[in-house]
Write the structure tokens for this entry.
Amino acid sequence: MEASLWRSLKNWHGYNNSEAAQILEKHFYEVGLYVFSRFFQHWSFETLKNKSFVIINSTLFTMMRYVSSANFLISEQQLKKELTLMILAYLEQGSHQD
């Protein structure tokens, strides 16, 4: 299990340094800041920046793992549902702290 985790982290590091990943991250980060700032106007810019970073990178990593695995343990529809629930729960939890 530990070796598998290490390989995943190394693969993610390689992906994360690619030009495609940087473009995707930048695009989603800009869109995320815009959307979150409209719905969470009471949050400071620092909070928006931090939340956007965590949401975007965790979602991108999960999506990349999904598309790069031939036998993923979850369907695409279920993945969409779970990511949506995760993001909404994270945003809801954070909205009570600021």
About this structure: The chain is about 80% helix and 0% strand. The radius of gyration is 15 Å.
